[in-house]
Amino acid sequence: MLKNWLKIAFINYRKNWLSTVINILGLSVGLCVFLLIYIHWQDEKSYEQWVPNKENIYFVENGNASFGIMSSSSYPEIFVSKEKFSEIEDGLVYNEWGKQKLTVGGNSAYVSGSVSIDSFFKFFPFEKVAGNYQNALSDNGKIALSEKTAKTLFGDDYQDAIGKSVKTDSDDKIYVVSAIYKLPENNTVFKPDFIHRNPYMEESKDQWTNYNYNGFLRLKPGTDIKTLEQKLSKQMQEQDEISSKKWGYALDKKNPAMVYLTPLSKMKLDSRSSGINKGDKKSIMILLGLSVLILALSGINLINLKTAQASQRAKEVGVRKVVGSTKSSLVLQFLMETFLICLVAYMVAFAMVELFLPSYNQFLDKEIKLNDPRLFLYTGLLLILFSLISGLIPALYLSNFKPINTLKGNFARSRQGVWLRNSILTLQLIISSFFIICSLIIHTQVSYMMNKDLGFQGDQAIQIYFKKTNWENGFNFKKYQRLKAEMARIPGVTDVTGSVNSLGSGTANGSVVKLATDTTKTVQTMLGGIDENFLKFYKIKFLSGRDLNWKKASDTINGAVVNETFAGKLGYNPKTALGKEFFTGWDGKKKYQILGVVKDVNYSGVNQPVEPIVYFNYDRNWVKNNMSNLQIKISGNDIKGTLENIKEFWTTKAEPGYPYDYEFVDKQFAKTFEKFQKQQTLFTTLNIVVLVIALLGLFALSSLLIEQKLKDVAIKKTLGADEKTIVWDLTKRFLLICVIAVLISMPFGYYAMNEWLKDFAYRIDMPVWPYVLSLFLLLILTFVVVSFKAYRATKINLVKYLKYE
């Protein structure tokens, strides 16, 4: 019996070779897209799964009215809570510390490190290579090295490095190696090449609102997380109340401080804040949902083509029922035929995944490997489920034929057959229209971001970070002044400036500002310490007032330029804000006066709102110690030559022995919406895949249906109908289905895109034209695909189809 079924299956595959190829191709592409996105999702979910007792470790996040939800915590929040609340077994603070050069004798390593405390290895027990984790980070003089760093510094005898000295470039301090560890091969956000204590940690023990650390808590099993969050939140609200009375600012009672606990195993995707190297869960889930739609579209093609072939197999079913075949055996036979197509598509899909995975990894900047055996198990189950769902409908449909009707040849005009095919075709076109609408709106939003006025001109300007020094005594701002003076003498350099904040990297160092005449008016602002020529360097437009005059002591001591958002937060427009005085949280009781208001400059990316900022002379307070970059404008006459001159100066005089790294400011800012450009690329690719699958399916379906009407075409031609009339008669039903499908897809597209646009502080108004364009585009494509086959039908041999009439 099975042998007979296989013979029948391959005869039908060969007879309908076009629809068979289209089914396999559509299913392969759909499954390939699904697998690529699925393994990306699984890869993101696998972070920190290697950590023992991960189910009891929680990442601490803080939320307040001024900053929103932050990924940082304060030192006392973690360790006072540990002593105060019995549910907490232990606490940990951790920070990435950037790159430093470690030196041992003549060997050096320029590596990324972190700062933490002794409990780090209790939370994250990296494999120990040498030393002892007990008290490995108990004081400021100890350092733990990764195996790779230790090898670079100490050579083959690196395991004997315990107790030996390592010098850091950040503070010229000598550290003693206390432990050597091996970084986990599993996915993790914790990959420090070295770890030592933060030298300022002791100063933070009483600073409840100094949110400078990533905090973690290990809780007792069975802890009620919601209850503990409420306790921690109440504690932070009490501390905010104390701080507001001390510094004299009003609290937002409607938005009190809140503390959130996120499980370590879900931190990568489910952090409420920006987390630690947080993944983009929303985009992944959207893409995963869209890949399921593509897979469903492939299944719809299969169902539609199988039901369209019904008239060809109606007599076969009728004869088999007459000779005694049961309905269940017919269903099993048709399911087997569908399973064989799905199995071939499954194997082709995995071959495509292997082919495209390197490019996909490069696109995502990841190293995903196809080596998880569970993937084959899950996809195997998916194959069986998909085969059942996509095969059961046509199988039941075909097995329900009545022998008396099929043997008379009346089935081709069955209303049930027409209704089922039309319904499935409509669903197919709904999905296609949905993708077109979404793709057009995403493209429009990304284009809007890329072309938005950012408030500055960063062309032909590069930024170079220099190494900060002297941790104990403050960073050496004189290094900035020296480098600026020497850089200005390089041929081709037209201007040099600097600032505390970097365009494209966001703002830092926030503080509360109070209006001098009404201290109830406060605004959380960013500190914009800048050099004398910064605003002119970037041609930032003044809306009112003037720039700071470095020759006037009053300007450089207490003069300020603010952005329009700052003025608006205090209730002023650019003109009425001039002359107003305010107190700051960074300069005690000294008043600053607003001398000018500039247009908003976007530091963090156009998907984020512009923050209030105060620009002032960087050399008048502690902010000068945070100057860490040079911003250099170069002549357009010989850009390449100028860059070579800068490189030679930097590597030989400025910072010899360190990697030379620079970036054009406009390209650096472009990275802030790189994520959305990738979304645009992915969605456009998926849109093309959907259209190809849908149009191939439409072509195959229309071919089968038109072939069933060739006798009608022959009769119409005989009666004198012209080609245009015949083509229109064969095409109009498909066009009507297309219009209905687009109208149904519009509300779904509107809802999906409205939700997506909520992520952007600066967004387009929902346009109408993508909905109209999707209608016309699908109508044109449908007409082209169907009319091609319809036109071919007008060229038939009339005698062949009328000789039996």
From TrEMBL:
GO cellular component: plasma membrane
Source organism superkingdom: Bacteria
Protein species of origin: Epilithonimonas zeae
Main location: membrane
InterPro entries listed in its UniProt record: ABC3_permease_C, MacB_PCD, Macrolide_Exporter_MacB
PANTHER family noted in UniProt: ABC-TYPE MACROLIDE FAMILY EXPORT SYSTEM PERMEASE COMPONENT 2 (PTHR30572:SF18), MEMBRANE COMPONENT OF TRANSPORTER-RELATED (PTHR30572)
One Gene Ontology molecular-function label: transmembrane transporter activity
The protein, known as: Putative ABC transport system permease protein
Start and end residues of each ABC3 transporter permease C-terminal domain: 290-402, 687-797
Alphabetized UniProt keyword annotations: Cell membrane, Membrane, Transmembrane, Transmembrane helix
Transmembrane segments: 21-41, 284-305, 330-355, 375-398, 419-442, 682-706, 734-753, 768-791
Localization in the cell: Cell membrane
Residues of the MacB-like periplasmic core domain: 20-233, 429-633
Membrane topology annotation: Multi-pass membrane protein
